[in-house]
Each structure stands twice: as C-alpha cells, then as structure tokens.
C-alpha cells in the first residue's frame, strides 16, 4: 500500500512513518519545513520527502493520505484530498489500525513526564528480553531512535491528549485501546484547544472507557484531578503508588538519585540511577508497575532503571566548559519548570543555578500560565526570561513578582554573551519546547572562547 503523510516531519508523524515503512508499505511524505534531524531519519528509512504542500505531490493518487494535526482547511494539499474524494485518515487512527492490532498496548498519559516514563517503560521491557515496539515523542538514550516495531506483542506508546486532526477533535490517545495505562498527573494545558481542565478530564474519561476490565490503570496516590476523572467511571483494575502509599518508595538521597521500592512495608529493590527529582522517582515507579503488569518483577525492573540513559532534551547535559554546565530541558509548563529546578537544586546543593526560560508553547503564548511563572523558578539563583517573537503579553509582571533575581531578554546574542560572562561553578538550565535558536551550542561556543589557549572542555 502507498501511504502519503502530510506533515511528516513532526516527531509523532515521522516516527509513525518509519513504523509503517518497516511493515513493508511504500511511504512518502511532505512538510512545510523538511529539515534534519527528522528528514535524515526518514530518508535513511527509504521514505521520499517533498517540500511544501503542492497538490501535485498527490498525483498519481496514493492508496491512503494521512493528515497531521498541524494541518487544517485551506491547506492546498488538504483541499485537493477532499475535492478528489481520496481516502484519508489521521496519524493516531493509522497507528491504531495498522500498527497496534493484536498488540498489548501500554499507554503513558498525563500532563507531565509522558516521554520520560514511556522511555523508562520501553527500556525495562527491553532489558527483560521482551523486545517491545514503541512510539515515543522523544529519543530514549538506550535506543537512539524514537520508534520501532519490536518483535513481540508488547507496544509502548506515549499517549498524548492533544487533538487528533482537523476532522477529529478527540484526543489522540482514545484511538490506542491500551491494556495497561499510566496516568502520571493532570493539569490544565493546551489552551489552544481546551477551554479548561474539565474539558481535558472528559478526554481522559474517554480513554478510561477504552481500557478492558482485565486491564490496569496505574496512577500516583492523591492526584485530585485524576481521582475526579476516575470517579466518572473506571471499569479496570486500579493501582495507586506514592511515597505514602503501598506500593511506594523511600528516598535514600534527597535528590531522588537513589530510592527503595517498597511494598507492604518491605523494601523490594533499590534504584540507583543518574536521574534526579521526586518527579522522576514517580515516573520510575509508574514504569516499574506498568512493566510488572506484563510480568517483569520489581527487582528486575529496578535493575534496568539503574541502566537507564535518560531522554534527549530532558535535563540533558549538553556540555561543560570552564566550570559551567549547560543543560537542555523540554519544560514548558510551570509545574515542569518547578520540578526540574527542584531536582537540580537537590543535586547541586549551594552551587549557582541559572534558569534560561523561553515561554514558547501555545498555552504560554496565550498567557494562561503567567500567574504561576514567577514562583515556578524559585529554586534558581537567577532567571533570564526570553521573550520570543509572537509572545503578545509582557513578562514585566513575572519579573516584578519573581522571588529570585530575574530579567527579560529579547536578543539571543546578548543573552548568550551575558551568561557566558558569568564564572563557574554554574549550572545553566535552558528550558523550551522548541529549538531556542540553538542557544545551547552558541553558549558552549562562547564559553570555549574564554578559555586559555590549549584548555579543554567536556561536551555531553
């Protein structure tokens, strides 16, 4: 079958393209911006790429057109598909109908931690010899690619609540029909498509309706928004975990880099790993319990987490020069910013922490989280808020309310110069859900320039 994908260079659609290509289908695709690294991955997989949305790319007509959720009416290729009566579907529906039939789907949903938890879960299954398939909205360090078919029925999917397509406004995850579901947490997000938290809870309720009675729903203890959602109806086994719950955990180090998995008051296994933060301990517990649902013991899962290599753009150390460490993190929500900085603070103690934050997400651009932004960076010693083009509200109020020294920067080069002028030891955490103009490499380059001739540096 010839499948043509409109919007193929997004993380989800590009990963999906590689999966269906691996099944033997002929896959072509187009996007407004065809560029590395996704374009390189797709070309290496034998997927022909086309720049732009000229309707000529759809002649001769493919057997099926897959339309990404970033495309809408008015797009010339979309209009051609509709005018010619071509068969079309969404990415989520294609995944459900072509890749997932006959699979034991393990879905990881929630406002925060989906990518990390799904990566942990896929790695635990892999380490146990279960050869899972997966589709994750990031690149797990243990695998190096964002998706693969796998060789067994087990399939891990990062289950996103964002809408499916212009013609299907349900959340993507309602298509997946999982047997094991992790619900990490639930807060208001995606203000461009959801009016309030209740609307998101409705979509999570629809997800729960698809889980079989012999399936399992795993969630942290005491999450009010999730409990409200479960109260609307849940027909599956439910397993809750938490520091004060059973199963649960005991922190052996304040930064969460070592913890004991507890059950019925007894320590079952110890996780000693490179990650930090109580949020990652919760992510790890969720992954352990999801893996146990398919037969991996807590002991084996804990040992696997000790070998977990993290995920690109999740507190990824991009380099260290002259005592300055530069981290890259995907945080783009006040809670994610706060938990990321809390984990780092617990690890580095009194060392200086500088947060560089770009409020870039659609929800941020709409100003829906502005009241919570100032406090979210309280664990940093100083904050630079970058005002990107298109942010139509002022960050002045965030600066005024900041509990730590803070300022706004609108020029990327000036931002890099000011950070590079600061002495080490210093931990710089760059937080954005976009590329942020390559600021990480620019900063590392500027730091190298201040080194004496012949000195070295470490790149992550």
UniProtKB/TrEMBL annotation:
Gene, per the UniProt record: mpl
InterPro entries: Mpl (IPR005757), Mur-like_cat_sf (IPR036565), Mur_ligase_C (IPR004101), Mur_ligase_C_dom_sf (IPR036615), Mur_ligase_cen (IPR013221), Mur_ligase_N (IPR000713), MurCDEF_pg_biosynth (IPR050061)
Organism: Alloalcanivorax venustensis ISO4
Top-level EC class: ligase
Cofactor(s) this protein requires: Mg(2+)
Top-level taxon: Bacteria
Protein name as it appears in the record: UDP-N-acetylmuramate--L-alanyl-gamma-D-glutamyl-meso-2,6-diaminoheptandioate ligase
Keywords, comma-separated and alphabetical: ATP-binding, Cell cycle, Cell division, Cell shape, Cell wall biogenesis/degradation, Ligase, Magnesium, Nucleotide-binding, Peptidoglycan synthesis
E.C. number(s) listed in UniProt: 6.3.2.45
């Amino acid at each position: 079958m010839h499948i043509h994908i409109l919007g193929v260079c997004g993380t989800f659609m590009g990963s999906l393209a590689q999966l269906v290509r691996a099944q033997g289908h002929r896959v072509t695709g187009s996007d407004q911006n065809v560029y590395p690294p996704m374009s390189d991955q797709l070309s290496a997989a034998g997927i022909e790429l086309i720049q732009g949305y000229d309707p000529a790319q759809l002649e001769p007509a493919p057997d099926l057109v897959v339309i990404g959720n970033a495309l809408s009416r008015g797009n010339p290729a979309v209009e051609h598909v509709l005018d010619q009566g071509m068969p079309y579907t969404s990415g989520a529906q294609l995944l459900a109908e072509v890749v997932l039939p006959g699979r034991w789907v393990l879905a990881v949903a929630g406002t925060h931690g989906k990518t990390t938890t799904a990566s942990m879960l896929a790695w635990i299954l892999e380490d146990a010899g279960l050869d899972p398939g997966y589709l994750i909205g990031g690149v797990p360090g243990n695998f190096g690619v964002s998706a693969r078919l796998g060789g067994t029925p087990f399939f891990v999917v990062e289950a996103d609540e964002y809408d499916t397509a212009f013609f299907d406004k349900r959340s993507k995850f309602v298509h997946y029909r999982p047997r094991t579901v992790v619900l990490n947490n639930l807060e208001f997000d995606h203000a461009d498509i959801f009016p309030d938290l209740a609307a998101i809870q409705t979509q999570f309720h629809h997800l729960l309706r698809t889980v079989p009675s012999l399936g399992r729903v795993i969630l942290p203890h005491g999450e009010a928004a999730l409990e409200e959602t479960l109260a609307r109806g849940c027909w599956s086994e439910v397993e809750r975990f938490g520091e004060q719950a059973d199963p649960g955990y005991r922190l052996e180090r304040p930064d969460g880099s070592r913890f004991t998995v507890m059950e019925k008051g007894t320590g079952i296994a110890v996780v000693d790993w490179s990650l930090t933060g109580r949020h990652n301990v919760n992510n790890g517990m969720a992954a352990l319990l999801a893996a146990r649902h398919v037969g991996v013991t807590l002991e084996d899962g804990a040992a696997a987490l000790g070998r977990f290599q993290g995920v690109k753009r999740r507190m990824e150390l991009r380099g260290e020069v002259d005592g300055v460490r530069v981290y890259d993190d995907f945080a783009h929500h006040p809670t994610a910013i706060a938990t990321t900085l809390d984990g780092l603070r617990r690890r580095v103690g009194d060392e200086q922490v500088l947060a560089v934050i770009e409020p870039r997400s659609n929800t941020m651009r709409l100003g829906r989280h502005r009241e919570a932004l100032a406090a979210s960076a309280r664990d940093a010693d100083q904050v630079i808020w970058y005002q990107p083009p298109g942010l139509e509200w002022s960050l002045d109020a965030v600066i005024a309310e900041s509990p730590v020294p803070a300022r706004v920067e609108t020029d990327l080069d000036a931002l890099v110069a000011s950070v590079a002028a600061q002495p080490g030891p210093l931990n710089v955490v760059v937080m954005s859900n976009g590329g942020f103009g390559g600021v990480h490499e620019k900063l590392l380059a500027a730091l190298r320039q201040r080194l004496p001739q012949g000195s070295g540096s470490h790149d992550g």
